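Service request form, structural biology core

Requester: graduate student, group of Dr. S.
Request type: structure prediction, single chain
Budget code: on file
Notes: please return the result as structure tokens.

Sequence provided:
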Amino acid sequence: MGWLYMKSLKGHSGPRQYLDAQFTHERPDLISKVLRSALVGMRVYYAAVEQVRVATGQREVWAAICLVRYNPRDPEGYIFGYKDMEESMGPCESDCPEQILDLLTPTDREYAMQWRARCRENTVARRTRASKPNPRAGQVIVFDEPLSFADDRSFQQLEVIANPRSHRTVLFRASGSCSTYRIPNIKRRSYRLVDPTG
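Core staff response, request fulfilled:
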């Protein structure tokens, strides 16, 4: 299915609540409801959707994934759009929270199993990054492999210095140099920090 855009959330308080309602319904043969959902980064919706066949009582919980675009100030008034998928389509988006993955029933669908495995791997990687210490001014950062910069210089070791424009971020400088560098997504890199000696 392609993208579906609309001019309102039809009475719902936000995109997640709207999408929860789309996957929650009852028909004579099927009852569907969202057990848990999350809107990650206001860009991707993940949900554990329970479906029960009325005639047999057969229960399945599968993952719904929706790409989301939400812009309440859209000049044309189309404030919300989404594109829905499900896990057996093997979507590229694979940051589904563990609490949702834990609710899914076993499946033998290959793409769904691969997608679930990727989500679990990404969860472990996020935890690992989150547990890494943040570089602090005064420390030395030593990378496992040299880092190349736009000025054609490479360094394996840099001094961590305070950023005069932001107390939330730091800058990096080669020893004896006045050139400073920014390193985006620092925690995705392999490094160790060395504290200054007394």
